[in-house]
Design a protein that fits this description.
The complex is a heterodimer of chains A (366) and B (169). Chain A is mostly helical and 366 residues long. Helix content of chain A is 61%, strand content 6%. Chain A contains twelve helices and six strands. In chain A, helix 1 packs across helix 10, helix 1 runs parallel beside helix 11 and helix 5 packs antiparallel against helix 6. The longest helix of chain A is centred in the N-terminal third of the chain and has 36 residues. The mean pLDDT of chain A is 82. Chain B folds into two domains: 81 residues, NADH-ubiquinone/plastoquinone oxidoreductase chain 6, subunit NuoJ (Four Helix Bundle (Hemerythrin (Met), subunit A)), CATH 1.20.120.1200; 39 residues. Classes of the chains: A mainly alpha (366), B mainly alpha (169).
Chain lengths: 366, 169
């Protein structure tokens, strides 16, 4: 694989953009979550630090850094330290294969005396457009369990261990439903590449030959079941209410991160919100047309690309808000109900859904 | 050059963590090291231009199977206990059989793998291609494996179901 300077510089640029966006998700989402919960529960929420309490997250971050970092006497020192980093890894890496904008042609540009961009350079706003795109996401997401399990075990605290075991059981169970639900979108696009899935959704279909509707997967009747299964499983995968058994505070103190303090705790906090953001980006890509702007055939120029990036961000933000909304609306399920729901409802439904989508494709309805 | 560096780094990671699996006395550390070793192995597949295989390696081995291993180890709640001394016969059998296996493996690799030229062109491991092969050329073995796994699932259910177990006794 030949590398040239442009490739390397642009790759670093893309990585910087994606990581920067992802790292900023946590402070912003913490603020949104606290203000959102206050709005739903009819109370003011954090409103003292800065306008609308916007700087509350910075105060929190400062507090995290300044707090004492405690490692329990009984803990397994190595694993206890590694666990939060392990948890962060999948959340940071899955975002690499998600396309976040329309590819466009870069104009030739002279910089520091030599032609920096070739005239025919195609800028694709995705860090790594690999052939196995979505498989890579599921592969890395399946490693997310280890951070939690290791943390729970290494703390040598019974609440931590309970939380960890519950979380891993839950994540293993819902991973199946999540993956099988996503299969239907792959069937429709005929590819594992997320860019292909998005391109397929940029087309249109007509109802009664009059109403023009973008071919986003969420608008296709064959995908509705898969969409519902995917979104609900996404809640379970990211350990959010109503599925937050890993840290059910009424039963387990704080679950797997009971013993953690200071920056190590902050890392768990960050990985939770980043996993949420990555999952939202995945939902937007698979079902909501990715960066596609409806009823507009985007020309492949830079300003159109920037607009699609904004639109993609908008979709991700909308899904993140739904995450918050659901958290403060639906109470926690019972653990046995959660497992029954996963294995006896969602898994069979996901299989049925694959048959439905395959039937639609065989009939050439999508 | 770049690929060589990646290869040697991850080869070292795979070997070192594999050694930790064997030598470390703590089973949880062992299981987690096996995960790391599997992950390093997946990187080898990527270098061999078989990304599909790499993803499956991580999903199936590092993701699914090792989580179950860890799960079992944690549920058993193993305490630190001194290992029972092994008898000389056991040691002798263990060392000789593993030495035989190692010699056989090295012989096989040297004779058949190392000095034969690789087939020209990139190794095609496209997901669609593999799927078509499985469901056309290899449909019979595929179905046999499915039945085998089904039998294992039914067996596990039978063992874990209390009412059936009670009836059997």
């Amino acid at each position: 694989m030949p590398f040239d300077a442009t490739d390397i510089v642009l790759s670093f640029l893309k990585i910087a953009v994606v990581l920067g966006a992802l790292l900023n998700v946590t402070p912003i989402m913490v603020w949104v979550e606290r203000r959102g919960s206050a709005l739903i529960q009819d109370r003011p929420g954090p409103n003292r630090v800065g306008p609308f309490g916007l700087f509350q997250s910075f105060a929190d971050a400062l507090k995290f850094i300044l707090k004492e970092d405690i490692i329990p006497e009984q803990a397994h020192k190595w694993l206890y330290t590694i666990a939060p980093m392990f948890g962060l890894l999948p959340a940071l890496t899955t975002i690499a294969v998600i396309p976040w904008g329309l590819p466009f042609r870069l104009p030739a540009k002279k910089l520091f005396g030599h032609v920096f961009f070739q005239g025919d350079y195609f800028f694709d706003p995705i860090v790594a457009d690999v052939n196995i795109g979505i498989l890579l996401i599921f592969a890395l997401a399946s490693l997310g369990v280890y951070g939690i399990v290791t943390a729970g075990w290494a703390s040598s605290n019974k609440y931590s261990l309970f939380g960890a075991i519950r979380a891993s059981a839950q994540m293993i169970s819902y991973e199946l439903a999540l993956t099988l639900a996503a299969v239907s979108t792959l069937l429709a696009a005929g590819s594992l590449k997320l860019t292909d899935i998005v391109w397929q959704q940029t087309q249109y279909f007509y109802i009664f030959n009059v109403i023009k509707i973008p071919a986003w997967n969420v608008f296709s009747p064959s995908m509705w079941l898969s969409f519902v299964i995917f979104v609900v499983s996404a809640f379970a995968e990211t350990n959010r209410l109503p599925f937050d058994f890993a840290e059910a505070e009424a039963e387990l103190v704080a679950g797997y991160h009971t013993e953690y303090s200071s920056m190590k705790f902050a890392l768990f906090f960050m990985s939770e919100y980043m996993a949420m953001a990555a999952m939202s980006a995945l939902v937007a890509t698979l079902y909501l047309g990715g960066w596609d702007i409806p009823w507009w055939n985007e020309p492949q120029v830079w300003w159109a690309s920037v607009l699609t990036m904004l639109f993609f961000t908008l979709k991700v933000v909308a899904i993140l808000l739904v995450f918050v909304w659901v958290r403060w609306t639906i109470p926690r399920l019972k653990y046995d109900i959660l497992m029954r729901l996963g294995w006896k409802v969602f898994l069979p439904l996901a299989f049925v859904n694959i048959l439905i989508v395959a039937f639609f494709i065989a009939k050439q309805w999508i | 050059m770049f690929e060589f560096a990646i290869f040697f780094f991850f080869a070292a990671v795979a070997v070192i963590f594999a050694l930790v699996v064997v030598l470390h006395h703590n089973p949880v550390v062992g299981a987690l090291s096996l995960v790391a070793s599997f992950f390093a192995l997946a990187v080898m597949y990527v270098l061999l231009e078989a990304p599909f295989l790499a993803a499956l390696q991580v999903i199936v081995y590092a993701g699914a199977i090792m989580v179950l291993f860890l799960f079992v180890i944690m549920l058993l709640n193993l305490q630190h206990q001194p290992e029972e001394p092994t008898r000389p016969v056991q040691q002798f059998l263990g060392y000789t059989s593993s030495a035989t296996f190692l010699i056989g493996l090295v012989y096989y690799i040297v004779k058949y793998a190392a000095f034969t030229a690789l087939p020209a062109g990139p190794f095609n491991s496209d997901a669609g291609l593999i799927g078509a092969e499985i469901f056309q050329a290899y449909i019979f073995p595929f179905e046999m494996v499915s039945i085998l796994l089904l039998a294992a699932i039914v067996g596990a259910l039978l063992l874990s179901s209390r009412s059936v177990g009670a009836r059997a006794q």
